[in-house]
């Protein structure tokens, strides 16, 4: 009796352990991208309130520091995923810079999620 393996469209099989590692790295990357993006939007709102509307934003003084820490985590997560997914330097740099442009981290996260999921067939894992 022979067992059928699912068709991979002519692509070589991906080791399940590699799929697991990439999937974990993608999850960490996605969370850090969303947190960084949300904090960056909050930082932009804070800056508008302070410099344009001349409001007292003392209660939001923590936002810049926390965003900075989140951005460092985002850089490490994107480097981790990029290493596992074997991104080019351009792909990694584009991804890294998306953490400093408002809303861009959400767009790049969705794009990288789609690419990595398709490349490593994570929906099958």
From TrEMBL:
The keyword Transmembrane applies. Residues 26-113 form the DUF3817 domain. InterPro entries: DUF3817_TM (IPR023845). It comes from the Bacteria. Pfam families: DUF3817. It is found in: Cell membrane. Its main location: membrane. One of its GO terms (cellular component) is plasma membrane. The keyword Cell membrane applies. It is a multi-pass membrane protein. Keywords: Cell membrane, Membrane, Transmembrane, Transmembrane helix. PANTHER family: MEMBRANE PROTEIN (PTHR40077:SF2), MEMBRANE PROTEIN-RELATED (PTHR40077). This is DUF3817 domain-containing protein.
């Amino acid at each position: 009796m022979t067992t059928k393996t699912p068709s991979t469209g002519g692509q070589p099989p991906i080791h399940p352990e590699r799929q697991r590692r990439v999937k974990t790295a993608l999850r960490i990357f996605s969370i850090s991208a969303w947190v960084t993006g949300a904090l960056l939007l909050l930082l932009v709102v804070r800056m508008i309130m302070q410099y344009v509307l001349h409001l007292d934003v003392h209660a939001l003084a923590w936002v810049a520091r926390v965003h900075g820490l989140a951005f460092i985590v985002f850089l490490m997560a994107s480097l981790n995923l990029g290493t596992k997914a074997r991104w080019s330097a351009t792909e990694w740099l584009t991804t890294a810079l998306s953490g400093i442009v408002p809303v861009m981290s959400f767009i790049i996260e969705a794009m990288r999620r789609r690419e990595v999921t398709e490349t490593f067939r994570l929906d099958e894992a």
